[in-house]
Amino acid sequence: MIRLPLDVPMPLGDHLDELRRLIWTPLIAFGVLFVAAFSLLHWLRMIYVWPLARGIQIAAGWDPAGVERCGLPSTIDPWNPAGLHLLDVLSIGESVWNSVHLATMAALALTLPIFLWQLWRFIAVGLHDNERALGFLLLPMGVIFFYCGGLFGYLVGIPYAIAWFISWSAADPIVNEIRFRMTDYQATFFNWTLIFGGLLDIPWAIMVLVRVRVVTVAFLGRQRRFAVFGAVVLAGALAPDAMSMAIVAPPLYALFEIGLLFAWLIDWDARRKARAVARRENAE
Fold this sequence. Notes:
The protein is mostly helical. The protein has two domains: 186 residues, no CATH class; 76 residues, no CATH class. The chain has a two-stranded parallel ribbon. The chain starts with 11 loop residues before the first helix and ends with a helix.
């Protein structure tokens, strides 16, 4: 059972002092984690470039001759650090700033749960018990869904997307060589990681909307045609051709159905508990 401070009246200045005190913990954690990440930069770089190496490996399995024609290794081991020299730099400070950005992102990823926990402690003081229980259930769930989506993107989504783009370029008769600039790969890696994390938060968002009574499960169930349309549009934004859209759209729509199922279970459990409370009150 998590113990939170009692909800007692406090002047505005005391609230601000309490907020500043809670913010210090994630700030200190960020500083410590940034230094730790920077000291482990060699291994962070290997982790960071792994999806690219894995994408080249997948593309080489599809079309080894085309990949080799474009100047990429037709045989590559993503788990061998010696073979991961794949990025080009076009300015003298590019590698330095990439290293700082990489350490910063790693520290932020590890600090985010600490910051959210401290923010939750500050907000939860003013909530009722049932609101605290609901918030404590939904907030960690949203973070977990996001990190699971980011992990899926890292292991599966990004490598296969890179492999598709490489195979397309390798089949293009006017392409001479495929090169990867460090700055471009940095933007691609972090943007796609955020996209995959946000996509897996779709079921969480549906659960939150239903649980706080913004919408109902029945209403969302009647909007399936719009969910299908939205999945197709989103797949079109993420996938470059019709075949890729056909592959991406069904999982996106499945996320809607998964969220709807979880929302129905949560709503069913809430109604069951409400009926049990009503029966006890009637019995008394």
